[in-house]
Amino acid sequence: MAKVFDPQLVLRDIPKLLAYLPETLLITIISLVIGLILGLGIAMVKIHRVPVLDRLLAIFVSFTRGTPILVQLYVTYYGIPIVLQYANYYWGTHLNVNNVPGLLFVLVTFSLNEAAYNSENIRGALQAVDAGEIEAATALGETQWQILRRIIVPEAFVIALPTLGNALISLMKNTSLAFVASVVEMTARGQIIAGNDYRYFEVYLALAIIYWGLTIITEQLIRLVEKRITRFQQQQAPQPAKKVNFNLLKHPASVVKRGETLD
């Protein structure tokens, strides 16, 4: 009877899958950065209630949060070529509809998904910033951009960091869906390996171990950043004033050293 489960194959497949880790990290980092920038913009629009744009972005956030990311990936995969065809027809462009790289579909989908989820987290963090500090900065004559850069964004980042960290972990695990757009990352490579020897269990177990390890490392890095930021804030916080020892005021002679006399 052949081996039903072979641990040696798991150990063999892990290095082969790790060779495609850069693609997974590339998708994660680029989508995270774009998602944070767009999420900050959406949060600012919703906070200031910009007419029309506020309602349009609310619909976008509701749609994105209410649909599976796999469905969003399919919509992007089949939708972008249709948009390019309309652009060629109405604007006279000559965009190659059949030569769109699969990585573009993935980055667009994941970036917009992150923007929708992060916008709510960032909006809550921005509104949680102490209004007294903003008023004090305004009284000192700082501009809105200076207040945003020096006070609001740093404090909001500390507040939103745990939630953003969870979003980062979810994004990293969601990159396993990139194979839908023909992007070969770790999961797609695992399917290719399993298709060669039909040892699917060992391959997917190896993938699970890798993703589990990445999640643990990411969690530890987030905790380390939180500790560093907390320690920095404690160092920057004003030191409490020293309490006056009223006993010295009542008995001043008690502080005179032995052998000395008071003038």
TrEMBL record:
Domain ABC transmembrane type-1: 21-222
Subcellular location field: Cell membrane
Main location: membrane
Membrane topology designation: Multi-pass membrane protein
UniProt-listed Pfam families: BPD_transp_1
Keyword Transmembrane: yes
Signal peptide per UniProt: none
TM stretches of this protein: 25-45, 57-80, 100-117, 151-172, 203-222
Lineage top rank: taxon: Bacteria
Membership in a protein family: Belongs to the binding-protein-dependent transport system permease family.
Protein name as catalogued: Amino acid ABC transporter permease
